[in-house]
């Protein structure tokens, strides 16, 4: 086998891995925040469906969710996703549920007095959330968030089961055709490098927020 | 016309009545001290006045605006949101635990509300904040973060933060209870000087000397009711009620 060709193909496949990673984050972080708000809503009609959604997403395997969205939507809802969008939808829905719980914990962890001080000073609920609470929430949830981000990098490999050509898919195809374990080792290094970058970014973010408390 | 009146305020938490019909009235420029044992409902009263809690029934009026009144069915009937927020802006509250915003510098803690809520230009808000910091003797701390300040300094910033909104009344919820005696003196001095400038204040406190020396009117609360009410002399020297005398006995001892 030619290592140059292998590496080029793996790099190319890494782009798909990164695409799933970033698309998932871009959509699931806001969705998670929204779900956290829903989970904490005063209204049962919002709180209960959101709780059920979170239970479903966290309570069933991500691989099953991928398979269901790719193969199961057509017979049930008449929607056929392409492979990559199906993977992205599954990842977004799944990660938003985890993010929701992290956000909820972070929001609950801000001392009550912060909200009260903001209220007495006349801040609207929106201002209170975005100016007073959210910056403090972000600081406090960085450690659990870094766990999720790192897990997401590795979870992208699950998209292989619905035939998305990402890093692990390319790697295992090479392994079976070339009968060599070397591509697995290289793939491991690829994931490791991506997560080293993620770890560094979180380190920098923690440092950025270390100026207070 | 009084700046603040409350009539027959009732408030229960889970079936336990913590305010059993509180009535009071504060004139412009007056200092009202609310004293009494822990759990007597003093803080809850302040929280009802500042809209951090809703009352079960009773009437609160601020500068002629009715915040809440007892409706025909006997439960509390609050005014429109617009009136409630107009009233909220007339009041400043200083908390026991300061509740400064930890992610903002001292200066931004003070300017954030005037800029965001009142729409003041940033420069104007900062100029005002700096003059308040000078008054609080904290001019060198405007770029510090709350975590870098002592408790007394943090409390002075929080007083400046409340004053920056130009409130008609300043309410204090045990402002010195989280401070050691030395820092307590620092905050009481600030409050004394505010009183001498005729700032209208309602002060929930355990500092009996402050209540006696600075207040125009003292309320002694116990078990959710006002037991004694009058001038400092009436309450501290000529208390009518046995409960008040018992509470003040330790303080009045030479």
Write structural notes for this entry.
The complex is a heterodimer of chains A (213) and B (254). Chain A has a single domain, classed as MetI-like (MetI-like fold, Orthogonal Bundle). Helix content of chain A is 82%, strand content 0%. In chain A, helix 1 packs across helix 4 and helix 5 runs antiparallel to helix 6. The longest helix of chain A is centred in the first third of the chain and has 37 residues. By secondary structure, chain B is α/β, with parallel strands linked by helices. In chain B, the strands form two sheets. In chain B, strands 7-8-9-3-10-11 form a six-stranded mixed beta sheet, with helices on both faces. In chain B, helix 3 crosses helix 4, helix 3 runs parallel beside helix 5 and helix 5 runs parallel beside helix 6. The model of chain B has no long low-confidence stretch (mean pLDDT 93). At the A-B interface, helix 5 and helix 6 of A face helix 2, strand 7, helix 3 and helix 5 of B.
Topology of helices and strands:
The complex is a heterodimer of chains A (213) and B (254).
Chain A: H1 3-39, H2 44-59, H3 62-77, H4 83-109, H5 112-120, H6 125-155, H7 167-178, H8 182-208
Helix pairs in contact in A: 1-2, 1-4, 1-7, 2-4, 3-4, 4-6, 5-6, 6-8, 7-8
Chain B: E1 4-13, E2 16-26, E3 31-35, H1 42-49, E4 57-62, E5 65-70, E6 76-78, H2 81-89, E7 91-94, H3 106-116, H4 122-135, H5 151-163, E8 169-173, H6 181-196, E9 200-204, H7 208-214, E10 217-222, E11 225-230, H8 232-237, H9 242-252
Parallel strand pairs in B: 3-9, 3-10, 7-8, 8-9
Antiparallel strand pairs in B: 1-2, 1-4, 4-5, 5-6, 10-11
